[in-house]
Each structure stands twice: as C-alpha cells, then as structure tokens.
C-alpha cells in the first residue's frame, strides 16, 4: 500500500477480499493513510462491523461478474487480495489513470476481462 499514489485520497479505493489476512491489513493501512476504503467481501454482512472498525468507509458484497468492458468509473485504485473473479469487473470500473494491484490467487488464478 505504501506505493499507492492516488491524487485525491477522498476518492474510493476498492479492496477485494477485504476480510482475509492481507485484505484486512490493506484496509487498515489504507484507512490510516486517509484513503476512503471500500471493503468488498463475500461475507460483507457478517463482517461489516469488523471491517468498519479497521477503517473501511463502506462495506459491500462481492462484485458480480459483468461482461461489459467499461462501466461507470468508481474506483481510484483496486487492490485484489483474493484472486477473485470480481477483479475483471473492478477493472472495468477503474477510473482513468487509476491504479490496480493483485496480490493473491486464492479465489482464482484467471482474469476474465476485456481490455
């Protein structure tokens, strides 16, 4: 997270797999640096309080797969800590000149996206 450079820290940064070990650490570190963190997890409802206590501004469920190559630009940065199929969807929602990093492949070792 130390290399992440987003011009405006108030713009949302999406953390996929936020409830796992690396994801929860990312949520905590990004929030402590002033980033507006959106935590995504398949267990969003049961872990909402935990993720908010780590500093998440918002907690959402897992992103649905979407075949559209471009969607509404939502995220200044995306950090995938799970290797989830949602990465393709998150990339299609990445803002122009946004940053993305993938640090895990527990969920899937493939990327389905149209670039």
Q: How would you explain this protein's 3D organization?
A:
With 115 residues, this protein is α/β, with parallel strands linked by helices. 26% of the residues lie in helices and 24% in strands. It has three helices and five strands. The chain has helices at 21-32, 44-54, 86-92, and strands at residues 12-16, 36-40, 58-60, 75-80, 94-102. It has a five-stranded parallel sheet with strand order 3-2-1-4-5, sandwiched between helices. The longest helix has 12 residues, at 21-32.
Short synopsis of the structure:
This protein is of the alpha/beta class and 115 residues long. 26% of the residues lie in helices and 24% in strands.
How many strand segments?
5
Strand ordering within the main sheet: 3-2-1-4-5
Question: Which sheet architecture does the biggest sheet show?
Answer: 5 strands, parallel
Radius of gyration: 13 Å
Strand content: 15-25%
Structural class of the helices, strands and pairings?
alpha/beta
Question: What is the overall shape?
Answer: globular
Average pLDDT level? 84
Low-confidence stretches: none
SS field, number of helical segments? 3
Helicity, as a percent range: 25-40%
Cα distance spanning the termini: 24 Å
Main attributes of the structure:
alpha/beta; 115 residues; globular
Topology of this structure?
Blueprint (H helix, E strand, L loop, with lengths): L11 E5 L4 H12 L3 E5 L3 H11 L3 E3 L14 E6 L5 H7 L1 E9 L13
Parallel strand pairs: 1-2, 1-4, 2-3, 4-5
